[in-house]
Amino acid sequence: MRLINQQLSPPVAMALKFAPFALLILAYLLGSAARLAENPNDKLLPAFSSIAAAVDLMAFTPDRRTGDYLLWTDTWSSLKRLGAGLGISTALALVIGIGAGILPFLRALLVPFVNFVSMVPPLALLPILFISMGLGEASKIALIVIGVAPIMIRDLAQTVLALPREQIVKAETLSASSWQIALRIVLPQAMPRLLSSLRLQLGPAFLFLIAAEAISADSGLGYRIFLVRRYLSMDVIFPYVAWITFLAASADFAIARLHRRLFPWSVLEGGR
Predict the structure, then answer these.
(1) What pTM did the predictor assign?
(2) Long-range contacts, 169-174 (Cβ 8 Å, 24+)
(3) CA neighbor of 46 nearest in space, from 221, 236, 226, 231
(4) From the centroid of its chain, how far is CA 115?
(5) Confidence band for 176, pLDDT divided at 50, 70 and 90
(6) Contact at 8 Å (CB) between 178 and 102?
(7) What does the pLDDT read at residue 1?
């Protein structure tokens, strides 16, 4: 039997899913044990007991200065920035992407500019944003929008342009206006791709968020990681990185579930 036709039983498939994670944990345990055997004060690969103590300190023990639970305060600060940036980006992609896809005037006016902006490295604009917009929340949100929105706009515009022309022609023969065509024909078919595009941009959005918080912030997940790195506090950095990964994976899972619930017919959009 060819390998491409191999059918995996549920237990085997489940074991294979968890195998890489188990190997990663095992490799960490072995590496940590080896380094700590040579130097009990080694900070590069702390023992799980040290990591657990750091999690308890950051998540379940009030800060002596502020009284806040730092992990949850940092999480809330980061999620507010991320939500604002992704929300603005999604709205811009929906309006500009569909508009540029169906209206030749907007396509000629905006698509070349959006394509140009999407080629600019967003992190290179970070100093400009801080100088022009200050060190507050606006510059951090703007970085996420600049990094994410142009890609989403391009993706959605191409999706609209790829819709069968026959659908537009049939709607026009039934006296549908441009507004009706956009709402009744284009929007329902563009929405699944918008959610898929949003899923694909979660990783870059977190990257821009962490970069902005690392440079200028007084709270946030990126701020905390770069604050404790000067003390080589890997027992704090590792849990924060794992927590960021969990948040991103949870957001991806939630959007995928929403995709399946709202558009079950759109199996080709990768929302399974």
Answers:
(1) 0.88
(2) none
(3) 236
(4) 21
(5) confident
(6) yes
(7) 62
Show the domains of the chain with their CATH numbers.
Answer: 3-45 (no CATH), 60-269 (1.10.3720.10)
- What percent of the chain lies above the pLDDT cut of 70? 97
Of the candidates 114, 128, 261, the one whose C-alpha atom is nearest the C-alpha of residue 192 is 261
Can you give the three-state secondary structure of the chain, one letter per residue?
A: CCHHHCCCCHHHHHHHHHHHHHHHHHHHHHHHHHHHHHCCCCCCCCCHHHHHHHHHHHHHCCCCCCCCCHHHHHHHHHHHHHHHHHHHHHHHHHHHHHHHHHCHHHHHHHHHHHHHHHCCCHHHHHHHHHHHHCCCHHHHHHHHHHHHHHHHHHHHHHHHHCCCHHHHHHHHHCCCCHHHHHHHHHHHHHHHHHHHHHHHCHHHHHHHHHHHHHHCCCCCHHHHHHHHHHHCCHHHHHHHHHHHHHHHHHHHHHHHHHHHHHCCCCHHHCCC
Judged against a pLDDT cut of 80, whether residue 268 lies above it is answered with no
Label residue 103 exposed, middle or buried (CB < 10 Å: 0-12, 13-18, 19+).
middle
With beta carbons less than 8 A apart as the criterion, state whether 146 and 117 touch.
Answer: yes
Cα–Cα distance for residue pair 113/18, rounded to 1 Å:
45
Tell me how far apart the alpha carbons of residues 269 and 159 are, in angstroms, rounded to a whole number. 11
pLDDT of residue 212: 92
